Amino acid sequence: MAEDLIIQDGDKKSQYESLIPQIKGLMAGEHNLVANLGNITAALKEQFNWLWVGFYWVESDELVLAPFQGPVACTRIKKGRGVCGTSWEKGITLIVDDVEKFPGHIACSSASRSEIVVPVFQNGQIVGVLDVDSTELAHFDAIDQTYLEEIVGLLDQF
User: Fold this and answer.
1) Cβ distance 103 to 85 under 8 Å?
2) What is the overall mean pLDDT for the chain?
3) Span 46-66, pLDDT tens digits
4) Which domains can be identified in the chain, with CATH numbers?
5) pTM of this prediction?
6) Rounded Cα distance, 111 and 51, in Å
7) Cα distances (Å, whole numbers) of residue 33 to 17, 36, 100, 136
């Protein structure tokens, strides 16, 4: 298990390609979901210094706050509500360039300007979402989507 991250400078793609093996190393041999969610959020926050990085986990008919890094957050989100609830409902990754233009956006932090939400699947079912917020408009793109989907795919075994 790795204990320190090697923070990669350079373009976004090379940052992800350096980080993913390190995340795999953090998860190697660790079977506790909460521990792995915590380390994934910490690694992403440390590498990219986004405003907020965290998970929401499905509990009955709501998403419930799980491990995260950043300012305090909304605790529960209904299916179909906000970016997280909509991603959960539709089962797709959502990239929002300007959160103020997203219908029903839940403003947990007024500093959030753009967002990406990636559903987490286990055995074909959505069990949670990874939510990432940036203070910059239009911060996320297809590169983020590709690599964040790969990262949450590592959780399929839990």
Assistant:
1) no
2) 93
3) 999 999 999 999 999 999 999
4) 12-157 (3.30.450.40)
5) 0.94
6) 8
7) 23, 5, 33, 30
